[in-house]
Every structure is written in structure tokens, then in C-alpha cells.
Amino acid sequence: MLLRVLAAMAVLSLVGCSDEPANPYVTNAVITESVEGRPVIGGYFDIHNPSGQNVTLSGVHATEDAIKVMMHESYKNAEGLMMMRPIDQVVVQSGEHVHFESGSYHLMLTGVPVGTQKLPLNVCFDGQNCKLITFKVRS
Q: For FRET with 75, which of 9, 99, 105, 137 sits at 20 to 30 Å CA-CA?
């Protein structure tokens, strides 16, 4: 009986404990609707980093070769005009989140077939840790 009680106490003391920090995760993953005559669509999502260390979004990649995904950043130039430039990575600080949205960081996709309702994309952190995320169409 004492052995069972001690075993139960040992298990209960470990509940909620982990040597692994929480991993970054993605929410609100959407793409704009692909329509005839518009070869480029946008992709938007939020990255949350609950871990105790900074992580780097190092790329987003399609599972199909015909679809190309590029990360971009919108910014105002010296004349106050909105411009875009490609980016290779985004650092997400520990305990923070980053929004990929219109007018800020965003994805640009080409080759997405008209009528696509869901698109699986690999979202990669630190050059190797990729997560397959399903992006849904937002019309």
C-alpha cells in the first residue's frame, strides 16, 4: 500500500513539469482567394512564441512545386509611399507574437490553382523545425 502511495505521489509531482520549452505555433492562417486573372495572392497568419528563447521564422514553403511562396514586408519609403521588399526571416522574441497582415509582414503566393479552398504550407523555424499548417481561403 505504501509503495502505491509513493508511486502516485511521484507521478503527481511530475504533472505539468517538462524540460522542453513550449514551441512556437501558428494561428489564424488564411490566404486570399485565387481568381482568374490575378496571379498573386496574399497569405496572413500569427506566430506565437511562448518559449523561453527567441525563434526565427526562416521560411514558408508549399508542398507542391508549382506553388511559390515568398515572405515580404511592407514599409514606407522616404517619400511616405508604401513599398514592399522580400525578407528571408523574422525573429519572434520570447513570449511575443508577430502578425503577418496586410501592410506589414505577409506572404505572396503564385501558382495557387483557382478554386483552392485550403492550402497546406510548411512553416519553418530556425532553418529546420517545420510545421505543416493548413491555410484556409478568406474571400
A: 137
DSSP string of 85-132? EE-S-EEE-TT-EEEE-TTSEEEEEE-PPTT--EEEEEEEETTTEEEE
CATH of domain 21-138: 2.60.40.1890
The enclosing H or E element of 6 equals helix 2-14
pLDDT digits 0-9 by tens, 10-42 = 444 444 454 455 889 999 999 999 988 889 999
Answer yes or no: are the C-beta atoms of 121 and 30 closer than 8 Å: no
| Backbone phi, psi, residue 122, to 5° | -85, 120
- What is residue 30's DSSP assignment? E
- Kindly report, residue by residue over 94-109, the tens digit of the pLDDT: 999 999 999 999 999 9
